[in-house]
Amino acid sequence: MKKFPENFLWGAATSAPQSEGAALSYGKTANTWDKWFELNPELFNANQGPSITSDVYHQYQDEVKRMKEIGMNSYRTSISWTRLLPDGKTLNQEAVVFYRAYFQAMLDEGIEPIMNLFHFDMPWWLMEKGGWEVRESVEHFAFYAKTAFEQFGDLVKKWATFNEPMVHVECGYLHGCHYPAKDDFKLAVQVAYHTLMAHVRAVEEFRKLAIKDGQIGIILNVSPAYPRSNSPEDLKAKEIADNLNIFSFLDPAVLGAVPEKLKEILAENQLLPFVEAKDKELIKNNPVDFVGMNYYQPFRVKAPENPMKPAKSPVDLFNSYIWPKRRMNEYRGWEIYPEALYDVAMLMKEKYHNIPWYVSENGMGVAEEERFMDENGIIQDDYRIDFMKEHLEQLHKGIKEGSNCFGYHTWTFSDCWSWLNGYRNRYGFYRVDIENDCKRVIKKSGYWYKELAENNGF
């Protein structure tokens, strides 16, 4: 049996906008998803908007009991900025009551809450001012973070500032699949920089409050780049991809400085963001205590053909390619490559001073899971179990070689709403019947995870 370290965290992850429901109720105001669905509902799968989520707001007590039933000892979700501070200034007491009850319910069942502050849910009132495009957003986020720490710091000890900050940068300002659906490389860099400074200011506010036993980190999506060949051109493409996609947030968060190579790349392509004089010291003085790493797929890169100079898009710096030996999750269009999780473990050990870290997301989304339902109504999701086993084998190998990993969280606990994709792909240990009051039914993977957690290994 492959045993994991003592007190290893076994859990799952979701976010407020994807699970809470009650989207515009109990004092909560609109975020970009609420507003975008109002403006363009045709963009959303099967007309499934942000109000059609898993109804955790009303069902959290039963949800937490189900977590306990499958052996989880930890759970990561987020706080809704527009629920806690509907206008960015005024504390919503209904939100405080809800979140405190939710977090206490977890603690009562021996489940540690890990709380994230931002999961792609920009307040609409701030988006109207420019959102992450404007420096003003940094201080608004710092105030929100401070408020959350003050209200819940006695219950929550592990905090994260952002989930996958590169996603709202790329999807909102390069690829057009998150609001405001722009395509502007230089603007994307500025958005990323303001996000970084918002993270730094939130860490600074956390340190000022000196929460007893409190820790703060950041959750990043990591897709290690693997070059097509060892040619200088392909290796350069890998270097640029890793600097833009991984080191851009990981270096400042852990090492306290923006990578020099990243600054060179941006300068060469006239992409440097506007910065303020105090920023360098703020970054240096506010490193994190831990890092969450979301891993789903690798990134296969090659040198670009006929690139624009200066670059107008990331494809002018590196291109993706199809690895001939790849295995695929066809439902998401993602390569399945568990070996990269070992490489992530080694990266954290060797480049980032072996800082404590955990796998904050890893999972497999599959469409039309009803095909795998047995006569008792249970989804026989062996494909999900196999996916987790393969990744845990690689993670275990990394831990045995000294990587300081303290947990493994899957995406997700109960099937959740997924942005423009709605409920097209399912990820959970529990099936959510959105046509029947969001009723939950455990899947085979839920039973397997219970055994995994109880044995602290497999």
What oligomeric assembly is this protein in? single chain
Radius of gyration: 21 Å
Q: Compute the separation of the termini in Å.
A: 5 Å
Architecture, CATH level 2?
A: Alpha-Beta Barrel
Sheet-strand content, in percent, reads: 15-25%
Domain module count: 1
Weakly predicted, low-confidence segments: none
Mean pLDDT: 97
Written description of the protein model:
- By secondary structure, the chain is α/β, with parallel strands linked by helices.
- The protein has a single domain, classed as Glycosidases (TIM Barrel).
- It has helices spanning 16-19, 32-39, 56-69, 81-84, 93-108, 124-127, 136-152, 165-173, 185-209, 232-255, 260-268, 279-284, 339-350, 382-400, 444-455, and strands at residues 9-13, 74-78, 112-118, 158-163, 215-221, 225-227, 290-294, 299-302, 319-320, 327-329, 334-336, 357-361, 366-367, 405-411, 425-426, 430-433, 439-442.
- The radius of gyration is 21 Å and the shape is globular.
Brief description of this entry?
With 458 residues, this protein is of the alpha/beta class. The chain contains 15 helices and 17 strands.
Keywords:
40% helix; alpha/beta; 16% strand; 458 residues; TIM Barrel; 3-stranded mixed beta sheet; 15 helices; 8-stranded parallel beta barrel
What topology does this entry show?
Blueprint (H helix, E strand, L loop, with lengths): L8 E5 L2 H4 L12 H8 L16 H14 L4 E5 L2 H4 L8 H16 L3 E7 L5 H4 L8 H17 L5 E6 L1 H9 L11 H25 L5 E7 L3 E3 L4 H24 L4 H9 L10 H6 L5 E5 L4 E4 L16 E2 L6 E3 L4 E3 L2 H12 L6 E5 L4 E2 L14 H19 L4 E7 L13 E2 L3 E4 L5 E4 L1 H12 L3
Parallel strand pairs: 1-2, 1-14, 2-3, 3-4, 4-5, 5-7, 6-8, 7-12, 12-14
Antiparallel strand pairs: 8-9, 10-11, 13-15, 16-17
Helix pairs in contact: 3-5, 7-9, 8-9, 13-14
